[in-house]
Amino acid sequence: MRTLPVLLVCFCVIANVMGQEDIKKTYTTSRLMSEAIKLDGKVDDIAWNAVEWGGGDFIVRQPNDGEEPTEQTFFKILYDDANLYIAVRCLDSEPDKVVRRMSRRDGFEGDWVEINIDSYFDKQTAFSFTINAAGVRGDEFISENGNNWDSSWDPIWFAESQIVDEGWTTEMQIPLSQLRFGEKEEQIWGMQFTRRYFRKNERSNWQHIPQNSPGWVHLFGELHGIKGIKPGRQVELLPYVVSKNLRLPAEPNNPFVTGNDFEFTGGLDGKVGLTSDLTLDFTINPDFGQVEADPAEVNLTAFESFFSERRPFFVEGRNILDYRVTSAAWGGSYSRDNLFYSRRIGRSPRFFPDTPDNSFVDQPVNSSILGALKVTGKTKNGWSVGILESLTAEEQAEIDVNGVRSKEVVEPLTNYFAGRLEKDIDDGNTVVGGIVTATNRRINESSLNFLHTAAYSGGVNFTQNYKDRTYYFDSNLIFSRVEGDEEALLETQTASRRFFQREDATHLTLDSTRTSLSGHGGTLKFGRSGNFRFQSGVTWRSPGLELNDLGFQRAADEINEWTWVSYVFSKPFSIFNRWQLNSNTKSTWDFDRKNLSNLVNFNNNMQFKNQWNGGFGVTHEFEGFSKSALRGGPLLRTTSETSANFWVGSDSRKKVRMNFGGWNLWGGDDSARMSDYWAWISIRPSEAMSFSINPSFFQREDELQYVSTSEFGSDNRYVFAQIDQKTVSLTLRLNYSVTPELSIEYYGSPFISAGEYSDFKQVVNSTEKQFDKRFVMYDENQLVFNEENDEYEIDEDRDGQADYFIGNPDFNFRAFNSNLVIRWEYVAGSTLFLVWSQGRTDNGPDGRFRFRDDLDGLFSKTGNNVFLIKASRWFSL
Description:
- By secondary structure, this protein is mainly β.
- Helices cover 4% and strands 52% of the residues.
- The protein has a domain at 3-227: Immunoglobulin-like (Sandwich), CATH 2.60.40.
- The chain has a 24-stranded antiparallel barrel. Strands 1, 4, 7, 8, 9, 10, 13, 14 and 15 form a nine-stranded mixed beta sheet that branches.
- 35% of the residues are buried.
């Protein structure tokens, strides 16, 4: 590919001159004296007279960047030894039209106002507090100079709002214990206010930061005048109790599935301020019973699926341990690779006992987390610190054979550790850091020898910004080492991430006596921010790299190069509020310098002046090679593919909203055709209730879907078939917020997928240029379906005897997951959950898609029901 030099020339030609920076604003606060503030949102307490109103000079950021806002905003700030007090007056000439939408915490609905506080004054991180006109709070931790907003951060703070004659007002009380700051006689903090004027979807700021500025936090205004405060020693405890009743269909003669199971447990979460900079979070016997189930899927690839973390302990503050190998503006599947993937902790046991017929097994669903702790924070010297330690229990399956009970270990006692350090230099213009992870297992049973006894990974990263952060260079280097029995390392070498057994991979060596494996990887990238944006980089993973004990890695033995060029029209023109154009290229090689794939893409997205949104894109991937298609066999030449996508979204301010879109793919030589269509409709009958429905339909016809690998004599036979797959899914959500503290939420998601296989064939010339010469079809004399055994018998040499067998690959998979949660924050930080969860799964017989029959089959099956009551109580010591 010769696109990189061309794009660099384009970059040099059209790069524009930077705009002038806005003047830095300051606000000086004062200490709250004897007068108390009644937090009612009215801003009528005498204490507020101690300071002047700030603001009145907000400037629009979206959509009309740099213009005067429709309505102005004013604020006051006071403080004492324990709290920061903030009052905001949002002028509105029509206060009866202020949109007061009720939602759960972090809903960010309707008219709202927000303050961002950089109390570290590191110009990289900030604490965000948002309150809307209905009194709903939202909070986020901001990092990476505004590139990462973590809404899982849930501090304890208080706020109230009121509609008044001149608009609406709010008062906030933020305990200083929820902020982080150094020990200084006088504090200087970065500060920013943002107001959302909902009726025009307008956002204005106190400190104007143009849309295409290279960053966010480092451009804040400043808060002065805070003197004599001391960082508090934060100690918070959150004990909880859980009562759980599991009801599911009883299985005849199975002593472990009687139809009813009751459990009563408890645990403790806690937060301790170790210093003014560092916080210790810990959990003992954590419960995640109120967490939504993962979406159903059918995975026909050679690779593991990635699922997002949903458990609160691991979600909160996850950004500080995040170490993506490749953070790319335009990346592929490799952009998910990470040295820390918390879903590994508490995963399902990976060994299932081999038992005789007529036996029953009580297999643990997940590994129990005995305890976990994490230390996070940022020191006054600019060091960001993140440490996580977790211990999961040895899990045993109970086996019943004709009434005789025994136990077998299915997952060993395992310790997980991750440590992250990062240092800001020169107000964040330079960043250096590193990470180490370790996984150690106590394996005493030979049945678990397929697991690593130890796995280590680490990395160092370096970022340098130039010309007021308009340009940047970013890099990281990583390594890994895994250790274990020969069985474990043989499985590692032959896993889908590397396939060392490939006969045509002369640069790879399969060693069955190996007891350790090491590898390396990294990323180098250079880019530009602003209206004209650019990024180009290279990332690699050596054949021996293995991160999946505590990280996530999809593939090894790859070198990827990408280039992304974009231009943003940020000021409204014609019918547009905003329009962004993007062009991309990506190429992949293996470590034998074999060019595996090349693709080009063009896409754009836009917002119209009527607040509708839309976009479309086209991608062309050239003919290439797949390392994984034959599941350990030689490379398979792949045909070219062209795909196109589009999406449209309606005005987000309306009570009835919808988005819809689609994607289509056409394979060269008529080898494949895929399409995916989706829609999302949201209805808000009242300010307190919302309902959404999200249907999707996916169809795939592919001539070369892998089926199996079979032995024939001394050779392997790679069996493929044409697949006709159809998938329908639907996600329903109903939210009703009685108050900001009391909400009812329902989630339901039926899923139906059917795949029918035909035209079975074996790959004979995997790299043949002509598509139909890469395989040979089985004829009717070679392929016979044995209905009794539900398998295909293949008589390749036509001698009347089956040479090998293939299980019937046709499938009908149906699933339904639902969750009803009543959540009541009865005291600040203390919550009562009432939960009903239901799960259903079913499999059909023949691979044919029959929507009504599949749906009837799914809901005629009795589901597994979980009824749960969880109560937690927050204590601050």
